[in-house]
Amino acid sequence: MKVAILAGGKGTRLAEETSVRPKPMVEIGGMPILWHIMMIYSHYGYNDFSVALGYKGDYIKRYFAEYGTLAGSITVNMGRPDPVVRHDQEHAPWTVDLIETGDETLTGGRVKRLQPHLGNETFMLTWGDGVSDVNLDKLLAFHRYHGKLATITAVRPPARYGHMRFEGDQVTAFEEKPQTAEGWINGAFFVLEPQVFDYIEGDMVMFEHAPLENLARDGQLMAYRHDGFWAAMDTLRDKHILQKLWNSGQRPWAVWEK
């Protein structure tokens, strides 16, 4: 099964980083967040990716070209036509389609442009800036069970501020940025049938608007509720929170380490 990742947005809310690189290439723990996302899928055996490029897409192409050829130990023999000799493989066995989908194309349009590379089969889809410990095996089983065209992972976002519990005026518990207890939002990590492409009319369509709204109207959109960890890196503050978690060793999305 192929995994589609949207990595073409401009990331204007993270301008401190995205002025020089696309948001999926912003690093957590020394590796791009796109790498983290792909490692989540790879942990469950999904190693065939189609990445929708847009803003600064060449940056992502260069990264994967170098990652595929220079990772691990090498010998450089300048007298050979192919001077780089690799001694081992220190990366996942990924196949990555890097597809140009336009600088101004919206999310639905990017999904539509990936259609020729995804084939006529069930596929997974996510954004290039969100990480989670969602169990992809259970997500797919849920999708297969209900038989509808689309499954969306519903999550409770992290609270923006610390949460306190009281007895009178005494604070009995303090949690720094826990998951909220109320409300569900789009956490991406979709499973989709190819008929979903019929709900996308063109480049200037937001996948989160008409396509999902119409799938819901037609009774074809189901939600997989995920109570575990989920976070999106929309701002510099979000990046710092993820980096702090990584540095502390508390890396709930790093399922490949468990």
Automatic annotation (TrEMBL):
GO terms for molecular function: glucose-1-phosphate cytidylyltransferase activity. Its EC number is 2.7.7.33. Keywords: Nucleotidyltransferase, Plasmid, Transferase. Residues 4-201 form the Nucleotidyl transferase domain. The keyword Nucleotidyltransferase applies. One of its GO terms (biological process) is O antigen biosynthetic process. The keyword Protease does not apply. InterPro entries: G1P_cyt_trans (IPR046981), G1P_cyt_trans-like (IPR013446), NTP_transferase_dom (IPR005835), Nucleotide-diphossugar_trans (IPR029044). It is an enzyme of class 2 (transferase). PANTHER family: GLUCOSE-1-PHOSPHATE CYTIDYLYLTRANSFERASE (PTHR47183:SF1), GLUCOSE-1-PHOSPHATE CYTIDYLYLTRANSFERASE-RELATED (PTHR47183). This is Glucose-1-phosphate cytidylyltransferase. It comes from Leisingera caerulea.
